[in-house]
Predict the structure.
Amino acid sequence: MRKRLTAQWRRGVLLLVTGCLVAAGAAACGDAGNEHNPPGANARAGPVLIRYAHIAEPPDGPWEPGDDAPFYLWLFNQGEDTDRLLGAETTVARSVDIVRADGTVRGPVDVPTRKLIELEKGRTHLLLRNLNRQIRGGDYVWVTLRFERAGEVALQVHSQVPTYVEDATDAPGLTSPSPGG
């Protein structure tokens, strides 16, 4: 039951985001003032929209020098021609590879017109290889994406802040909720 609900929720979010990207030109969803800003870094390279770009949440403390850190983002091409994400660069890692879900190098990603491409956990995504410094949840780093047609775009992306704590009493500054309150 839980898997089915998760899959339904995921499909619903995907449909909502895709609809917003198409209907509103991906500038915003929701308010008339176009002030809504989805989480993660958002940018545009020519007709290619970049949304929710972020470094994956560190699993057990910060990403350490030498670690490989997953980098996730969504792409939507509003142009008339298919583009391709060729790669990326950053000063905080030896290299950035486009990899399959299992971590093997994949190479460029096609970005067809009017189709949402999700580069995320469990799918093709980018991987910052051999970090040269510590990156904690909440830290920001610069990453430059390179597209075949749209060119390059540099964006400041953050490392996701952990969203869960198994025992809140062990985390600095957090306390467990009081009974009945």
Q: What stands out?
A: The first strand starts at residue 41 and ends at 45.
